[in-house]
Write a structure and sequence with these properties.
By secondary structure, the chain is of the alpha+beta class. The chain is 18% helix and 21% strand. The chain is built from 4 helices and 8 strands, in the order H-H-E-E-H-E-E-E-E-E-H-E. It has an 8-stranded antiparallel sheet with strand order 3-4-6-5-7-2-1-8. The chain is globular.
Length: 182
C-alpha cells in the first residue's frame, strides 16, 4: 500500500477507534536502531527537543550512526554511543543548545550526552537502563525506546566505573522508519 493510502487508512481506522501499533506509529519520528541482537525502536519526541530530533534524523539519514560503537556502557545505568572516534570525545562537529524538559529519565529514555557545558551536545546519546533521576532537567531527552529494550540489555558492559568497553558492540544500522528499507 502506498504512503498516501497508508495514511488515509490510519486516519479512517483512528476515526473508527481501531488503530494498530503500526498504523499509529509516526514513521517520520521513529528510529530503527539495529544491533546484532535485534531491532530497537525509538519514538522520537520533537515536542520535547525539536532541534535535537531534527539533527539526529539528519545524521541518521547521512548514515553517520552506522557502525558507531557503544563506547561507554555502565551496568544498571546507561549505554552511550554516537562518537565516530569511539573514544567518547568525538562528534559530528555541530553543537546543539540544550532543550531541557521535565521529562524524566526512566528505563528506555534516550538522551543527549554532553560536557559540563549544557550547550555542548553533538551526536552522542545514551539509552537509560533504569530510572536516573539525577539526570532530570540536566540532559536533553529526545525519545524513548518503545520496542527492543531486551536487545539494549545485551549490549556489552564496561569493566569499570568509567564504563569503557573493550571490544564494544556497534550500531549495525540506524534508519528513520519512514525511510526504512527493511
Amino acid at each position: 500500500m502506498g504512503r498516501k493510502k497508508s495514511i488515509l487508512a490510519a486516519v479512517v481506522m483512528t476515526a473508527l477507534g481501531a488503530t494498530s501499533n503500526a498504523e499509529a506509529m509516526d514513521l517520520e519520528n521513529t528510529l530503527y536502531l539495529d544491533l546484532e541482537y535485534g531491532r530497537v525502536v525509538i519514538e522520537m519526541r520533537p515536542d520535547l527537543a525539536p532541534n535535537h530530533v531534527a539533527r539526529i534524523k539528519e545524521l541518521t539519514r547521512e548514515g553517520f550512526y552506522d557502525g558507531i560503537k557503544f563506547h561507554r556502557v555502565i551496568a544498571g545505568f546507561m549505554a552511550q554511543t554516537g562518537d565516530p572516534t569511539g573514544t567518547g570525545s568525538g562528534g559530528s562537529g555541530q553543537k546543539l543548545n540544550a532543550e531541557f524538559s521535565s521529562e524524566p529519565h526512566v528505563r528506555g529514555t534516550t538522551s543527549m550526552a554532553r560536557t559540563s557545558d549544557p550547550n555542548s551536545a553533538d551526536s552522542q546519546f545514551f539509552i537509560v537502563y533504569s530510572a536516573a533521576n539525577h539526570l532530570n532537567n540536566q540532559y536533553t531527552v529526545w525519545g524513548k525506546v518503545t520496542e527492543g529494550m531486551k536487545y539494549v540489555g545485551k549490549i556489552k558492559r564496561g569493566d569499570d566505573y568509567s564504563g569503557s568497553v573493550d571490544d564494544p558492540d556497534v550500531i549495525v544500522r540506524m534508519q528513520v522508519a519512514a525511510d526504512a528499507k527493511e
